[in-house]
């Protein structure tokens, strides 16, 4: 038995047998050709490219084509890679000048590309190395007349173990058969992680070297909630995890029973529970978990796919799809929140010494009017398909907000002049994730229809602790008295102007924070769909009086540690199942 720790990418537990997907390492043959064979070799390459493109089109078609899974957009980029004149020129040059066989020339070219991309500081570019490797593997298999393992053709339930899961693998795999995922590589924002969450498959990524530790058919446990993998578990571990799985499933089913019941405190205060989504397909999970709407659609994920910036039409289609699939529920779409740790190539981002405090989010959008206006036009056009709310991220003060609102009104006027149809009363809101905005909440509240607190960033900026840096993770304290005071200030500021306050940072889905947030007067909680039933259960089990009393008690306390200990004790006493290990 061996235990490995990785990144918890998608919650849940799975027990099963390893399906080892090393994508059969294809040995690349190397041999020299003579002058008279060059044309034939290039013809062989061209044929393989044609076949590979055909396969990719077929795969795209099986995803529902352009109107299907929006994530399949990367297949288009893969096809474009196969048409990239620079890439093809380089392969052909190696064939012609070095008299190399096509496989070797392809391999050499791809290694050059991968080296450049992998050395990049930019996470997005590094992940594009996955894409180019993905296309190259397909092409190589076709040159060698080998068939790749087809993940859409798995016949029994398995735990997929791979070095890395490429986007096309994750989309193509049979989701009913893949019960869990464990990979050497990948982070929380990799395509595999996003899709695993969207498809509700427990996943642990970034394990380093799991592929060296397991064999096909090995027994394995995936605990996506804690990021743990157990290889060849002994009877005791199996028993423990069978129980955990049973408890998890039981709890999920019990909590799902709450789906149609409102999130109402014992003394009758109705709270709205919304879902955070990253891709349009997640609306299905939002509805099945009883979400009252979408509280945060991170629209920038739409741009974090290979290829160019999404066009107005592509955005319009995606936003319309989310709005219409949420039926009568409201959908809050956040405008592009790029920059900081979410860099993109093809935009005029420059290297900045301090990107988290730099040209990101709304600042980037206001500096790239073309991109921002395109998104606003797409949003306005889509607004006729449902109940749209628009939210601007990272607002730091009144002038910035005024400039954004002026631009928004200009786009509306242009539409009015052209007679374009849109909803004239879309509620506009802002995210409160900068301390200066929190401290002027009562002023900002006069200008918008709602607030949504982004605690992920608000905590980062309040405590001056990089949310992605594990060395200072011990300082990232949602119950820090400074953070709690700011939350109170925001909620009171909003309520003084009679506008509702939502929270869409991770804190909203943290069961230990739920009663405090209730007591502070939060109106809307927005979180990953999977967390909704649990938070609903907690809300339904307490009264506002209890919640306000808890807040009163902790506001008299002086330190994070004191508050944390007290709140955990308070919650564990009432919700025994919360005590994890
Ligand atoms: C936040 O900062 O809390 C938030 C919801 O935005 P993101 O996590 O996308 O930065
Ligand atoms: Mg944020």
Structure commentary:
- The chain folds into three domains: about 110 residues, 3-Layer(bba) Sandwich (Glucose Oxidase, domain 1); about 110 residues, Orthogonal Bundle (Enzyme I, Chain A, domain 2), CATH 1.10.274.10; about 300 residues, Phosphoenolpyruvate-binding domains (TIM Barrel, Alpha-Beta Barrel).
- The radius of gyration is 25 Å and the shape is globular.
- It has about 575 residues and is of the alpha/beta class.
- The chain is built from 21 helices and 17 strands.
- An eight-stranded mixed sheet has the order 1-8-7-3-4-5-6-2.
- Bound molecules: phosphoenolpyruvate and magnesium ion.
| Structural classification | alpha/beta
Low-confidence stretches: none
Instruction: Please tell me the CATH architecture of the largest domain by its name.
Output: Alpha-Beta Barrel
Q: What is the terminal-to-terminal distance?
A: 19 Å
Relative helix content: 40-55%
Task: Give the strand order, joined by hyphens, for the main sheet.
Answer: 1-8-7-3-4-5-6-2
Figure out the total of helices: 21
Tell me how many strands there are: 17
CATH superfamily (homologous) name of the largest domain: Phosphoenolpyruvate-binding domains
Strand content: 5-15%
CATH topology of the largest domain: TIM Barrel
